[in-house]
Amino acid sequence: MSVTALIGAQWGDEGKGHIADKLAAESAIVARYNGGDNAGHSITIGQQAVRTRLIPAGAFHPEVTNILAPGMVVNLKSLGREVDELNHLGASLNPDRLKLDGAANLLLPGHIALDGATETVRGSHAIGTTKRGIGPAYTDKMARVAVRAALIGDPDKFEAAVREHVAHSNRLLALYAQPALDAEAIVKEHAPLAARFAPFVADTTALVHAALERGDHVLAEGAQGTLLDIDHGTYPYVTSSSTITGGVLTSLGVGPKHVKRVIGVAKAFCSRVGAGPFPTELLDEMGARLRGTGANPWDEYGSTTGHPRRTGWLDLVALKYSARVNGLTEIVLTELDSLTGIHPLKVCIAYSYRDEPLTNFPTDIATLSRCEPIYSELPGWELDVSHVARIEDLPLAARVYILQIETFTGVRVSCVSVGPKSEIEVSRCEI
Length: 431
Ligand code: IMO
Ligand code: MG
Fold this sequence. Notes:
This protein is of the alpha/beta class. Helix content is 32%, strand content 20%. The protein contains 13 helices and 20 strands. It has helices at residues 16-24, 76-88, 109-122, 134-142, 155-175, 183-197, 204-214, 245-252, 285-291, 316-326, 365-368, 396-409, 422-425; strands spanning 3-8, 29-32, 41-45, 48-52, 65-68, 73-74, 98-101, 105-106, 201-202, 218-221, 259-267, 270-272, 310-312, 314-315, 330-334, 345-353, 356-358, 372-378, 413-417, 426-428. The strands form 5 sheets. It has a 10-stranded mixed β-sheet with strand order 9-7-5-2-10-1-11-15-19-20, with helices on both faces. Strands 14, 16, 17 and 18 form a 4-stranded mixed β-sheet that branches. The model is unreliable at 422-431 (pLDDT under 50). Magnesium ion (MG) binds next to loops.
């Protein structure tokens, strides 16, 4: 059959987890294609909200094979913790159900130390990374000094590679006047993790192609969002992986002909974690309202840090850009319910840059940070939409909001989520 790509269409935290969990039910394979434990995807198991970081959304679907694809950077310590946690909740992630590609790169303690050191040196220009070591891990991959997962099955070679990597990291840390890492301690900590996960290592590209040849469905689950893409995001305020459709192809090792659906997950408003330009940001009471109080797990607070996320109106200029660079075939709109009771609603339809209108999203941050949003006002609605199951039953104003997104981006909104619980979450919409 084919590959469906599920991509964050904004700055991350669009609610990809819930949608991936839904789509996992129809998939033989769910493959995470980028990033590492910087992600925080929420899924609901029974009444419980579960947060995944490395493990794909197929974890709780017994028939699904979950893949950590070559494009990922994997911290084995985090992986061990997460597998234990999810198995405790009934996921039964064993080597038959979870596959770690041998070409995926390991994220080691040196990366975390360097992430912290580089952020400190940046001072007021810090990116606001998750401090999980993501940037340095991808740096080492590109510099061809990384340790690949394939090595964990060979204890001697793995130990030698880890020692070499610690030496490499220590040389870099010295440049930042940081203390050297203890190779002995790192080897000791990683040897049992390597032994534990060696049976999980596989050639996942072969598995994906075998599934496609059998006529099975593959879901490529993205982390972060389009505007955080290393090439097409708001560099340098980005993550270090390919978050967009192109990243699916290189990570899974599939050609474009296999990708039939490209689903962009977009929130009904915008949020951003960390630094960097955000034209529609609201620093007022409306921003606080969109953020929520933090009482609910889906409120806009960092999943690890608890820090409030930056929030703002829906940016259609950015979403249209996202539709283009990903080749979106559909948009899944999340958190429509968060807009209930807001009058009027605003959506950004152009920027004003040096008093000239700009309709193409500029990724150059010098330009973007000088863009003022130009808004279109739309009517709001009062009805609590969180129990609406059919698109026809949404208030007219909500349907107009959806229509505006479709008209502006030229992409169909195929699903709308109106609440955090799976039962009422997605209604197929035909508008
Ligand atoms: P999910 O998958 C939102 C942001 C960080 C920072 C920048 C770089 O839950 O949508 P990094 O640690 O990746 O080097 O940080 O990217 N960031 C995210 N923002 N959601 C995420 O993941 C993110 N992962 C990283 O806040 O601005
Ligand atoms: Mg997140």
